[in-house]
Amino acid sequence: MPAIPKSSFEGMPCHATALRKAARRVTQMYEDALAETGLRSTQLAILLELTNRADNPPTMAELAQELVIERSALGHTLRPLERDGLIVLQEGEDRRQRYVVLTAKGKAKFKEGASAWRIAQERFEEICGRASAKDLRLMLLGLAYNDRFAKLKD
Question: Which end of the chain offers a freer environment for a tag, N or C, measured as fewer CB atoms within 10 Å?
Answer without folding.
Answer: C
